[in-house]
Amino acid sequence: MRIISDSSEDEMVACFLLGELTSPRFGAGIRRALAAAGESEHLLTEADPADPDANRARRGLLAATRGYGENRDLFKDFPARVRWVRAVLTPDELARVRYIDYPYWNELSGGSRLPRDAADRIQAGMRAFDVSNHRFVAAARAVRRGDRFAPLILTGPRRNTLVCLEGHLRLTGHALAGFPVEVQCLVGTARAIGRWAR
Q1: pLDDT confidence of 196, banded at 50, 70, 90?
Q2: DSSP single-letter state for residue 98
Q3: Which of 33, 67, 104, 178 gets the most CB atoms within 10 Å of its CB?
Q4: How far apart, in whole angstroms, are the C-alpha atoms of residue 194 and residue 34?
């Protein structure tokens, strides 16, 4: 892993929300939460991590949609103090990143939570919970074309024991494409993440 720079909680929150805004699965929920808060998409598409009011609004949005800072939903047992860095992972390092412990990703990967195993099962025609794999195939095509993606957000107790927090579709696309390139990520580490990232 090559560290590029320090990052922050505010940058992680902004990247997480932007990733979900562009997601076919989560985008509508983010837009509803923005409207309920009286905010526009510019809060996410033109994020300025130096603006404390905007940072506060984004943290509130992530709390409303995913339980961030409220010890619920995706962020149940997620620690309050995490050290964030921007880093580049090699293909081999990326292949060792695990999915979160969630029924869909467990099923897709055959229980290993490894994207390479999920890619093998997708190529064999397996569909987790009968959900189409077309989005993974499309993501793999984009990886092979050299398209640029938002950074994956990864967490763990150490930098060599990481779980994907945001970006499972993109991670699976890289696996289906054979992990052809290095990938820029936001990496958060804290000893207490060991309980969350089991």
Answers
A1: low
A2: B
A3: 33
A4: 32
Q: How many C-beta atoms surround the C-beta of residue 192 within 10 A? A: 14
Kindly report the backbone phi and psi dihedral angles of residue 63, in degrees, each rounded to the nearest multiple of 5, phi listed first: -65, -45
Start-to-end Cα distance in the chain: 21
Q: If phi over 0 gives left and psi between -120 and 50 gives alpha, with beta otherwise, what is residue 17?
A: alpha
pLDDT in tens, 92-109: 999 999 999 999 999 999
pLDDT digits (tens, 9 = 90+) for 22-63: 888 889 999 999 999 999 999 999 999 899 999 999 999 999
C-alpha to C-alpha distance for 84 and 7, rounded to whole angstroms: 5
**Side chain identity at 174, as an amino acid letter?**
H
CB 160 within 8 Å of CB 171: no
For the beta carbon of residue 142, count every other beta carbon within 10 angstroms: 16
Which CA distances in Å does 122 have to 55, 177, 197? 38, 12, 24
Contacts of 106 by beta carbon, 8 Å cutoff, 6+ apart = 99, 113
